[in-house]
Design a protein that fits this description.
Elements: H1 2-13, H2 21-41, H3 44-62, H4 66-95, E1 99-103, E2 110-114, E3 119-123, E4 130-134
Antiparallel strand pairs: 1-2, 3-4
Length: about 140
């Protein structure tokens, strides 16, 4: 029975766009607004906003115009790239115990060097500027 439902759903979703990063954001925002609204404010405007976000998410998931949905998602990814890369670099810096990260004073490139080597001279791989730091 479960296998039959799975194949039916797969057949239904064929040619449709499905989920992507923008849909994940829209769904998360809708859930957060709904929780905030139910716990504190109970505003009709927030309920309407959450409903609009949910409808937009469902519309995007079931859309057959995959080219347009992909273009929307790429635009979203392009706009959020600086924020996502900052979080990625910060997470990498916090979890990497074997290296230290420095910023080149000339071109602002992030440079990774091994920890525990004392005072070393670092050469930037991008602009070839050398600067001295304690690792």
């Amino acid at each position: 029975m479960l296998e039959k439902m799975k194949t039916t759903l797969l057949r239904f979703m064929q040619g449709r766009y499905g989920a992507d990063q923008l849909n994940t954001l829209l769904l998360t925002l809708a859930v957060l607004i709904t929780l905030l609204n139910s716990l504190t404010l109970r505003s009709a405007i927030l309920t309407l906003l959450a409903d609009i976000l949910l409808i937009w998410t469902i519309f995007r998931m079931f859309s057959r115009n995959t080219w347009k949905r992909r273009k929307e998602n790429n635009r979203y990814l392009e706009l959020t790239r600086p924020v996502r890369s900052w979080f990625s670099l910060t997470r990498r810096r916090l979890t990497d115990r074997e290296h230290r990260y420095f910023v080149c004073p000339h071109c602002h490139q992030n440079v990774r060097v091994p920890r525990g080597r004392g005072r070393i001279e670092i050469t930037c791989p991008r602009c070839k500027t050398t600067f001295e730091r304690k690792s």
